[in-house]
Description:
The structure holds three protein chains of three kinds. Chain A is 36% helix and 4% strand. Chain A is mainly alpha-helical.
Amino acid sequence: MNIDLKTIKHISKLSRISVDGQKAEKLASDLNSIFEFIEKLNELNTDNVDPLTSVAETTLKFRSDEVKSKNIREQIIKNSPEDNEDFFVVPKVIE
Amino acid sequence: MSDITSLSLTKLVKNIKEKKLSSEDVTKAFIARSEKSKELNSYITEDFSNAIDKAKKFDEKPNLNLKLPGIPVAVKDLFCTKDIRTTAGSKILENFIPTYESTVTQNIWDAGAILLGKLNCDEFAMGSSNETSFFGNVLNPIDKGLVPGGSSGGSAAAVSGQLTPITIGTDTGGSIRQPASFTGTVGLKPTYGSCSRYGIVAFASSLDQAGPMSQNVEDCALLQEVISSYDIKDSTSIDFKRNEYSKELTKNIKGKKIGIPKEYRVEGMPKEIEELWKKGIEYAKDCGAEIIDISLPHTSYALPAYYIVAPAEASSNLARYDGVKYGFRAKGENLIDMYEKTRSQGFGDEVQRRIMIGTYVLSSGYYDAYYLKAQKVRKLIKNDFDEAYKKVDAILTPSTPSSAFKIGEKKNDPVSMYLNDIFTVPVNLAGLPAISIPAGHDAAGHPLGLQIIGKAFKEQEILNLAYAMEDKISFKNKITDWWIK
Amino acid sequence: MSKDNSEYLIERYDNIYEVVIGLEVHAQVTSSSKLFSSASTKFGAEPNTQVSLVDAAFPGMLPVINEYCVKQAIKTGIGLRAKINKRSVFDRKNYFYADLPQGYQISQFKFPIVGEGTVILDMENGPKEVGIERLHLEQDAGKSIHDMDPQNTLVDLNRSGVALMEIVSKPDMRTPDEVSAYVKKLRSIMRYLGTCDGNMQEGSLRADVNISVRIKGSDVLGTRCEIKNVNSIKFMQMAIDYEANRQVDLIEEGKTIDQETRLFDTKKNETRSMRSKEDAHDYRYFPDPDLLPLEVTDEFIEKLKADIPELPDDKKKRFIDQFKVSPYEATILVSDIDTAKYFEEVVAKMGKNQDMKLAVNWITGELFAVLNNKNLEISQSPISAKNLAKLINLIKNGTISGKIAKTIFELMMDGDQDPQKIVEEKGLKQQSDPKALEALIDKIINDNREKAIEYKQGKEKLFGFFVGQAMKASSGKANPQLINEILKKKL
């Protein structure tokens, strides 16, 4: 396993975290040592093992179709970084 | 009463119920000690004046039937508290004020408790030393130079340093048990689905679980009784019969079968830990338990699997911190630039590192090799426990492979930091309950913990075992109050 | 290009291309609250007033599934004759966008709730089967508004978290007409089931159109392009026409087609590459750890099956059998559930002496014209089924002529009036008394003796003149059949 700078760039783009030169190198070195340790899993043959996604031994519980959450716009908008009473505001997006 | 803050929760409740102490007395005592303990950096946000008002209000019309009547409690800053800033130890939520309350904290207030403030933790609970917090590291009351453990480091320090009688933490890979072990306190990670995750800032949804932290097992049982509830607002909450843990607590563990897994005897483990474990086995025998050697063959794969599963879930859970709806936003030339700067400046190094790992293991071409593989290993680890529980009622292990390490010691070496969770992580992957109790000291006088792992939903069983062993161990924390001038 | 509607081929020199089309239809589930939150789904509310803490992805908020939405998806699956999966899984589709507050959409990737099914299209040249690949449940995103503020994009999360069914067809369609018929049929089925209102203006039904071309007769699929989010049937057809020709041109020029996502520009009538989405997409799907697998029992499914109403295909068969209407007429009558309901009510109210031909003609002729004109749904018809049935009966029993009926029909629209009353009040009853009509005709012949002679000498065209005079003299009320008979006798 070798995570190069190109891979770092790619995952930084996917995760929307900007990574400059120095930081990228540090990340690459950290991730390489972490993955070296993770690679231990390859010792195990798991061909006939079912994946376990949740340990909760129950099935999905249903909610009834009732409108309970009313208009809480003020609460929803209150913490947003840009002042606007009605909307969330982001830098202009050009489609 | 001069020494209010040294009283256990159970004693405080008794005193309040017998009207020997008022809620105001107790609240003011903990606030006074907290005020003198700023150096520990346990708190991120204090809510002291509100707490005194609430205590006075409680005393006017005290409802003494409640389980936590007028008891002041500080909580980990990962629980959303209505109208009180909740940061998750991160710059990205530095000024976030929830308009809602987590189910677990609501349960505590409903039981009569009063919020003291919000306790420091590793950023988004990602860390084992409390050094990743945006609000600075927490000092271990045991010794100035030591980390308190993490991620519930502020919580552990606050209980150990007697800034709060009890607290709650969250445990994704050991974040309650490891700091409990490092600070000479008791910490329980309940069965996955026992405590609602509603309103807790998510780290890794399939592993996160809230739990009690306290000075002794009795207090722990009482707090667990209060916080555990079935919650329809959390789809992974489980509807099972919850015991009245404190009432049903017993030291009679005669004939209980306790498993000793050979795989926990890891290479390079300090002798002190080995000896502690042996002592633990003797204590258990003294209590009338039967000791059985068992094997959990996939133990050594738990940590690598955990470092795939937890970052994968985290990378997605933390996508909502994008500078749009709440929290920190950096200026950007366009939407994408804003996202990238916000997340790069808003998250600390460890959080960024884990988001990157998570993004990578889920990305196209790597999913099967990493994420799916880890899920399969998770199944094997759960199978190990299922197998073991055919023979035993509980499993006894050390809580951590070492005592509290020095501040800065592992900060720049992520893998050695991760290795600290080697004994706690398998429990989260299997969704089991486990408790850490203080069981002795190393040569330097730093506390060491033992972990008792139970069957799913059998919190009562491990609380009883811990209660019985606690009695035999009769641990005394060596705290000098060095930080109080 | 072929003129025959049943074939849609593109010819260039010696090459004849056919077009292969598959659709991903996004249908909004009819429900009061959202898929994973209890906020309202009502259309047209003030911005951000129907947003819960879950919809805006506040820290620690968790999804809890709406049972009704699950039932709606299963019902739709039954309507599509599809396999219902008793176990399905919700996954997270991860990407960043301003109107996607969680940073991921909860969808179903590997294990959808509904598997393979079929839809039958009633094409002019016979039925055509289109395969359904799958149907899955997912969350809708919010809305980004780019034109309200010069510097910023504004985000409204009212739609965020509303339940959608994504219905994926197999690439079984070959013509724009089939696409139109397919969307109409899906819409019809869902409206019968009450699972989606099918309102395209409000965005309740949108489609991504997958198009590729190949030499006719080839069985290899060409490289496809996906045209995103087309919200009207007309635009789908236009987009297909443009895109298919674009692809053929590229092939003819010896160029390759890039597999890509395109956008249909309704103003320029062209498709173009979506540059903003060009970032190589990697959605990093994984099972949502906040949700457990969705499991339903046979009993749960059977209960829903018992609730399924008669669907268009069955209704069509029954209409043909029971009412002896033609397959073509039946197709029109069942295409919309409210039309079918209206028709059946008219039939019921006509009583014993039913005339299906008249009923069909009046509904699909006069009534449809009026509704079309006034832009009304049949459920909002100004004339009730009961009164239309009465009108048809008045024609059938000879009380009024067809021509008078049209006048009465106009009058009925004003407040859904009873045609019987109009006939009585306005004295519009048909004159069918032979004696009175004979007297009337005698007078006309008398008054126009010269023309009568011309007619008798062979100028047969003049017959119409006499009919006209008779109708005029009777203010249109004379029974035209009787007039004809009497005139023939007298002249």
